[in-house]
Write a structure and sequence with these properties.
261 residues; 10 helices; mainly alpha
Amino acid sequence: MANQDFSETLSLVLRLWACLPRHRKKLSAYLLGLMSIGASTEVFSIATVIPFLLILSNPGQAFSNPVYQPLIHTLHIQSDHDFLLPISLLFCFSAFLVCLIRTLSSFFNVRLSSAIGSDISSESYRRTLCQPYLYHISRNSSLLLATITTDVNQLIYGVVNPLITTLSSLVVSLAIITALVYVNPLVALSIGFTVITVYLLLSVSTRVPISHLSKEQALLNRNLINSLQEGLGGIREIIIDSSQDYYYHSYVQSDRPLRRS
């Protein structure tokens, strides 16, 4: 069951990628590059934490450390107390750079997801309009409305946006683990194994409930739009028959479960 859900998700992602226009694919490549830069800044920020803490706790030891001698000679630092300022500035700069890249990455994540959603929604509407008349009279209009509006939103915010966020986190994690492998392979492999295990356990335990929830939301959305269309489209007959309560309860039966889901 889990393998089938994973295959369906992967197939959906591949078909979605194939449907994207060329300029959206270029934007995705640029975003991947920004993720790589963000991963590098994360590693750089972590690397500056150790010397910063070492100088705060023992400035003399840090000043005599051979690793920092090139920086000391370049900046013409004469004492261990003078060494605190450049390292502090370097640490602050790395923290600022990480925050800046994260903000830019989050901004472009949302922009790309929204742009993909607009492309899919517009293309769905265009293809619907191009269908023959027999197609329109044989299909429920509420189903078409739900597909173009609600289902597309669920695709973007339930698949595309989480996928981009997961990819960004994966790039950062791989960069950090690679840096840790260079410093201490045993610790890095232990951390990597723990992170991957926890992620797989969470993924397996939540995939089925999320899949059922998304299908339930799609059905409730269609019922909700259908109820609104029937109520507002036939308002004349509803007023004549005094059947407002029936359509009200029909709407509530779809709206409340949707709000709770």
